[in-house]
Amino acid sequence: MVNYKLAEGEKKFAEIIWEREPLPSSELVKICEKEMNWKKSTTYTVLKKLCERGIFQNENAVVSAKMSREEFYGGQSRKYVEDVFSGSLPRFLTAFCGGRKLSAEEVEEMEKWIDEYREERSEGGMRG
């Protein structure tokens, strides 16, 4: 199971990779030195850590994502809803909206998503 928590430095590092992948690890070192003031050893230590967590890979000195930005942050969101709202999406949405009015576009988008989910379930598929 992936740990969906990233420290601030790890988050910036991950964004660098997602924005430029695939990229040679030597180029990643140069970018991190310039943008984050990191030494080569720091870059490789953080890269190794995030590779071990299943987010990135470093094969033949080329760094790429094993998990897209959307997959990572989607998993982070699901973990948050599970931990804080006992997995209840309606409870999360109630808290998230916090009494503010949803726009017609937001309501329409949510209704469309719910309709698509219902169709998938009725066809025997499940949205993960």
Brief rundown of the structure:
This protein has 128 residues and is mostly helical.
Radius of gyration: 19 Å
Helix tally equals 6
Shape: elongated
**Overall pLDDT:** 90
Number of strands: 3
What is the terminal separation in angstroms? 15 Å
The major beta sheet can be summarized as:
3 strands, antiparallel
Helix content: 55-70%
Q: Give the low-pLDDT segments.
A: none
Structural class, please?
A: mainly alpha
Strand content: 5-15%
Order of helices and strands: HEHHEEHHH
Main sheet: strand order: 1-3-2
Helix and strand topology:
Layout: H1 8-20, E1 23-24, H2 25-36, H3 40-52, E2 56-59, E3 62-65, H4 69-85, H5 89-97, H6 104-122
Helix pairs in contact: 1-2
Q: What structural keywords apply?
A:
single chain; 128 residues; mainly alpha; 6 helices; 3 strands; elongated
Describe this protein's structure:
The protein has 128 residues and is mainly α. It has 6 helices and 3 strands, in the order αβααββααα. The protein has helices at 8-20, 25-36, 40-52, 69-85, 89-97, 104-122, and strands at residues 23-24, 56-59, 62-65. The chain has a 3-stranded antiparallel β-sheet with strand order 1-3-2. A hairpin with a 2-residue loop joins strand 2 (56-59) and strand 3. Helix 1 crosses helix 2. The radius of gyration is 19 Å and the shape is elongated. The mean pLDDT is 90.
